[in-house]
Specification:
Largest sheet: none
Structural class: mainly alpha
Mean pLDDT: 84
Oligomer: single chain
Number of strands: 0
Radius of gyration: 21 Å
Number of helices: 9
Strand content: under 5%
Distance between the termini: 57 Å
Low-confidence stretches: none
Helix content: 55-70%
């Protein structure tokens, strides 16, 4: 209910030609048969940019409203996963989980209504954060199983803890980097804290390997198997310009002449 009443980022105010255009424009290229990273480029990821709007066009018709509708649905999923994650963390105490969720909802309202709260805008729950919520939910469940000594009986959380981060390279590249690094650290801590000297169960490693393999297949399908072009742009070309793109423009009118 909270998600239904919270404006969707970049989908409720007048059209943002830059941010929304990143997806709408590349979706047109995709629908005309062009191949990602070979015929056209984008910054975030193959789903976040071209495929998100392309799928929305297929589902709801070709319009800006279709892309916004899918974004609103994604926002609801993100909030639902946040609520599930908070319950998983605080159960069986409902009050702290509800208080944390209420804080996020109130934060959205304050940022939307009062300009003085804009510095807190990065703390908002964004549509694409559903991937982070799903990953954290799987991670919490995996650690709970480890604490209970049932790690060998945890194939689904183990699968998801690896599958979600790697698959995110086909969703949003920055999510792929951040979540993959987090997963590697989490698995190392899991081994050091719970299984050192005993070894992890074969079923656990099979689940981890299956998660990585399935994610690579999914990413390859989204990329139309253009791994070489993807790797060249992501690891060689983009790092040269990323900091310049995200930095502030120098105020040339203030430069000493």
């Amino acid at each position: 209910l909270a998600a239904l009443n919270i404006p969707t980022y970049h989908a409720w105010d007048p059209m943002n030609r830059f941010h929304e255009g990143e997806s709408l424009g590349t979706a047109v290229s995709h629908l005309h048969g062009q191949v990602p990273y070979r015929d056209y480029l984008f910054v975030h990821g193959v789903w976040q940019d071209p495929l998100r709007s392309a799928v929305a066009f297929r589902l709801f018709g070709r319009s800006i409203g279709s892309a916004r509708a899918l974004e609103s649905i994604t926002k609801i999923v993100a909030f639902a996963l946040l609520g599930w994650l908070l319950w998983e963390i605080f159960q069986p105490r409902a009050a702290p989980a509800f208080a944390a969720l209420l804080f996020v909802v109130a934060l959205h309202g304050l940022v939307q209504l009062e300009a003085m709260w804009l510095p807190l805008a990065p703390l908002r729950l964004m549509q694409r954060d559903w991937t982070s919520m799903a990953f954290l939910l799987a991670l919490v469940r995996l650690y709970r199983r480890a604490e209970a000594g049932r790690l060998a009986a945890s194939p689904i959380p183990a699968f998801l803890v690896v599958f979600i981060p790697v698959a995110c390279f086909g969703y949003s590249i920055d999510r792929g980097f951040f979540l993959t690094a987090t997963a590697l650290v989490a698995l190392a801590l899991l081994y050091a804290g719970y299984q050192r000297g005993r070894g992890l169960a074969l079923g656990f490693w099979l689940a981890v390997t299956a998660g990585a393999a399935a994610a690579l297949v999914l990413v390859g399908f989204l990329l139309q198997w253009r791994f070489a072009e993807f790797a060249r742009f992501t690891f060689r070309i983009m790092p040269r310009y990323k900091e310049w793109m995200d930095g502030l423009a120098y105020p040339l009118h203030l430069a000493p002449m």
